[in-house]
Design brief:
single chain; elongated; Methane Monooxygenase Hydroxylase, Chain G, domain 1; Elongation Factor Tu (Ef-tu), domain 3; 3 domains; OB fold (Dihydrolipoamide Acetyltransferase, E2P); alpha+beta; six-stranded mixed beta sheet; six-stranded antiparallel β-barrel
Amino acid sequence: MSILDLKPPRSEADRQAALAPIRSTSAQDVAAAEQPPWYRRRNTLWAAAALAVLTVGAVWLVYDWSQSGNVISMSRLETTTVTRGQFVQDVAARGTVIAAISPTLFATAAGTVHYVVHAGDHVTKGQVLAVVDSPLLHNEYQRELAKLKSMNASLAEERVKLQEQLLTSQQEANLDAVRMNAELRDLQRAQSAWKVHVISEERYEGAYDTYSIARLNFEHARNNAHLAQRQILLDLRTRTLARDAQSLRVAELRSRMDALQVRSPVTGLVADLAQPDETYVAENVPLVTVVDLSALAIQFQVAESLAGGISPGVPAQITLGGQTVKGVVTDIAPAVRNGWVTGRLRFDGAPPPGLRQNEQASVRIILGQHDNVLYMDRGAYISPQTRFLYVVRGDKAVRVPVTFGAASISEIEVLQGLTAGETVVISNPERLHGAPEVKLSK
């Protein structure tokens, strides 16, 4: 211990001063009330409530923003109502007025064609339309005609010769018959004389042999006459057939000669002149086409997917120039070309006046009628293969599964998934992006 650490003993006053309390600021302090925890304070509660409101609003805004892609205006959608009643199944087709009878006439021989009518001329049945000058056919006809005349003359001459041969063979047979009868009488006299022994047996046998020879000659002559007759008839038949064949050949050439004057087979209109006037044409070349305006029909084309129920006898409605008339399907092609099936209609009654070939027509083919069924407008995006669509329920469009049946031009039959009175979206479903439900705005 250092000497500096040693202190002198304190006095009584010092000890009292040491025991006196030290002055503090307690006299200046004011007692405050007891405070609650911070999380129970009013300001904290108000701040928490405001924060909760802001959080909920932010979450709502985020949710609404995230769902903004599934909101669409009703004005952008096309809707229809499901109805229960009578449903007519039909098919639309495009048609063209054609001539049911429009024969094309051909050249029967090679030659130069001379037209006496023009395209668009009205003609009557049997009227000459064109003339074909054919020297080759004319010469051939003259040769065959001369041959026929020669064959007729030869046949007539041959007939005379054959008749002469027939008469000669018949004459020989008759003479042999006379000789045989004469020898028979001699034999009978000889037989009578031999019985009374007037003549010898040798003479009787000689008479018998003579008669036998005469009888054989007669039989041979008679058979030869029959064979000659059959041969003559056969020769006549052969020559007659040859003459008839030549006659047919001449008749054919005569018909071809007459056909060189091309005549209209119907009363109608000249549709087309296939060859230039005053030109050389070959045989069987088309010359002119005639249209029978009294026998017009409608040729229609329908999509392959809609042609299944079309058959001959099915009724139809034909619209021409704003006028609708009835028709009947008469023919439907069995083959498909480029996705289309071709058929033909006839008018059920008189056709409208003033029709022109190749005039366009609208065709509605009635396939059937169904009573008390659900149906709706089909729009442009609904077909029997559609499996889902959107139904308007409140302010939402809900995607529901459906099953469709028969389809018509503007309507389609509903089999499952919908009820009468429901509102259905029939516009392009791509606008709804395949969402399970879509909010609708006004």
